[in-house]
Amino acid sequence: MNNSRRVLLIGGIALTLLGMAHGLWYAVFAEHQALQGMGSSLSAAFSAAALRNTAEQQHTMDQYRQTKFVYDREVDAHGHWIGLGLLLMVLSISVNRVSFSNQLRLLLAWGLSAGCLLFPLGVLLQTANHGAMPQAIAVAGSGLIIVALTGITIGLARPQSN
């Protein structure tokens, strides 16, 4: 097994396990509280609206938005780590057909693996910090994924040299 295949396969397995572990942790320790928080916030918002208490309605809708924001990012990180891990494993099968040097294939494999880790991590970090840094991490990760997948696609489209 060559190094680029090893990087993609081990990285894919690691990301898939990370995504499953995060999903299990979230389902056991946090998801039910988040869903209960969203439901109670909406219920309180509707009650406040019925009583024409716009300040309370706005406050409870803000609580709902914040809880939903965190919930969406937790679920997205879990799903993206698993999906991107599976993509890495599938690409490990065909990486030898990429018509580039071993060094370039290895660089593309490392770039893709790093991007697949960083993109969901940046999304997940947005739950703790709404600043620019988590967004920059997510954008950098997605950029690495796009560049590496473009390189792999070009390498697969090129004719194989003997």
Beta-strand proportion: under 5%
Beta strand count: 0
Would you tell me the overall average pLDDT? Answer: 94
CA-atom Rg in angstroms: 21 Å
The domain tally reads: 1
Write the H/E string, N to C.
HHHHH
| Contiguous uncertain segments of 5+ residues | none
**SS element count, helices:** 5
- Cα distance spanning the termini: 19 Å
Please tell me what the overall shape is: elongated
Biggest sheet overview: none
Helix content percent band: over 70%
- Content-based structural category: mainly alpha
3D architecture notes:
- By secondary structure, the protein is an all-alpha fold.
- It has one domain (3-157).
- Helices cover 85% and strands 0% of the residues.
- The chain contains five helices and no strands.
- It has helices at residues 3-29, 31-50, 54-94, 102-125, 132-157.
- Helix 1 (3-29) packs parallel to helix 4 (102-125).
Considering the chains and any ligands shown, give keywords for the structure.
162 residues; mainly alpha; 85% helix; elongated
Helix and strand topology:
Elements: H1 3-29, H2 31-50, H3 54-94, H4 102-125, H5 132-157
Helix pairs in contact: 1-3, 1-4, 2-3, 3-4, 4-5
Give the gist of this structure.
The protein is mainly alpha-helical. It has 5 helices and no strands.
